[in-house]
Amino acid sequence: MAVNAPARRLLRSAEVTDSGVTPLDDLRARITGARAVQRMSVTRIPFAEMRGWRFESGTHNLVHDSGRFYSVEGLRAEAPQGAVRAWTQPILRQPETAILGILATEIHGVLHFLMQAKAEPGNRGGVQLSPTVQATRSNYTRVHKGRAVPYVEYFRGAAGRQVLVDARLSEQGSWFHQKRNRNIVVEVPSSAGVESRPDHHWLTLGQLHVLLAEEELINMDARSVLACLPWTGLRSGEERRPRDSYGTGGAHSTDSLLRWLNRMRAQLEGSARLVPLRELERWERYDDRISHESGRFFDIVAVEVEARGRETARWSQPLLAPRGTGVAGFLLRHVDGVPHVLVQARTEPGYVDVAELGPTVQFNPGNVQPAAGLTAPPLAAEILGAPAGRVRFDTVLAEEGGRFQHALNRYLIVEEDPARPVDELPTHRWVTVRQLVGLMRHSGYVNVEARTLVAALKSLKP
C-alpha cells in the first residue's frame, strides 16, 4: 500500500530534526531569555482581592462579573463500581469551546508549524511552546476589552482552506465539567507569506519531536493538537496487516473496540451533576484557598497576574492547583511490526460520556491512601518499576497553565517485557497507535493524557 501524500509530507517534516528557519539552539536561547525576563508576574492573593470575580450569593459559586470565561462550581458524583462510591468536589465549568489552532506551511519544501512561545499564569517555568492560537471564545471575541488574538482569523474562517486536523476533544474530566476544545491544523500556501510575530516560531515536526523530550517545554494544548496529525509510523509489517473499516489492523478491530468501550460505559456508568459550591462536603473555604480536609487532591486558589505582550496587561483569576505530580504511562508492544499500546476505559466525572480511552496507568501517587480505598491502579508497578532499558520515554510535562497552577504529570512509555506478556484486564485493551489516532477524529474517545502519550510515541525512533 502506497504512503499517501499527507503522510509522506509529515514523514519528511519529522525527518528534519533541525531547521535553518528556526534553529533549535536559537529557539532554546530565546525561551531561556524570555523566562529570565519574567514577562509575567503571578502572585497568590486572597479571594477578596480578586478584581472582576465574586462568590455568587446563594450558590457560593466563584464566577466572573461578565458571566463569561469560566466558573468554579460544585460536583456531586456517584461511581457504584469505584473504590470510592460517592464524593463531592469543586470543578471548573467552562461551556465555551476554545480554539487550539496550529498554522502549517511549506518552507523550502518541508512542512513547518507556527508555534507560540507563551507564558500562562499557571506555568511553573514561565514560557512554553503553545499552538499558534490558544484562545477561548471570550478571549477571541474580546470580552476582556483587550487586543485582538493574532492569527485567529485563519481558524475561525477555516472553510475553504486545507485543514489537516479538525476535532472537538475533551480536557481533564476530573477537573473540568464537560470541557472541549477545537483542535485544528490549517495549512496555508507558502505564497500566502504569513508573517511570524516575535513570539511565534516556524518549526518542523522533527524539531517538535526533539523538544517533546524536554521538561515543561511543549504545552498540553500543543501536544493535544500534534497527537491528532495523521499517524506516520508506517512500517512494512504494519502495511501488510489486514485492515478494518477504519484502515487499521491490530489485536482488535476498531468496531469491536468501540463495542467493548460501549459495554464498559454501560457497566461503569454512575452519575455526576453540578451542585452549588456551598453544598460540598469535606471541602473548606479559607481566605485564600478552597481545600479538601485531608490536604490531598487539589486546591482552588486566586492569583493576580501582570503580563506584557498579552491581550490584557493585568487581571485576576482563580486556578486549580493540584497536590503532587501525577503519573500517566503506556505499556507498548509490537505485533508483527505494528505498535500497540494498552489503553484503559477510564471514567472521570466531568466526561460527557462516562469513559474515554486513557493511558495504561493514570493516577496521582500522592492521593494513594489504602485505608480510604485509594490504592495504586493495576499495572502501576509495570510502568514505574521498569528497568531503564525498557523505558522509551520519561519526561515531566505541564498541563494547561491557563486554568491549572503547576499541574505536572510524569509521562512514561515502557516496552512490555517479552518474557512476561501483559494480559488484557476487563478494563484494558491492546490497540494500535493508528487506531487511537483515527479515533481522535471524533469527540469523546481518547482522553487528553493519552493524546500527550501518542504525541510522544510519534517522536520515538523505531
Task: Give an overview in words.
The protein has 11 helices and 24 strands. It is globular and about 60 Å long. The protein is α+β, with helices and mostly antiparallel strands and 462 residues long. The model is unreliable at 234-242 (pLDDT under 50). β16 (298-307) and β17 form a beta hairpin. The chain has helices at residues 5-15, 24-37, 137-140, 152-156, 205-212, 220-227, 236-240, 254-268, 380-384, 433-439, 448-459; strands at 40-45, 53-55, 62-64, 71-78, 86-93, 98-107, 110-119, 127-130, 133-135, 162-170, 180-187, 200-204, 271-275, 283-285, 289-292, 298-307, 314-322, 326-335, 338-347, 355-358, 361-363, 391-398, 408-415, 428-432. α5 (205-212) crosses α11 (448-459) and α6 crosses α11. The strands form 5 sheets. Strands 6, 7, 8, 9, 10, 11 and 12 form a 7-stranded mixed sheet that branches. It starts with a helix and ends with a helix.
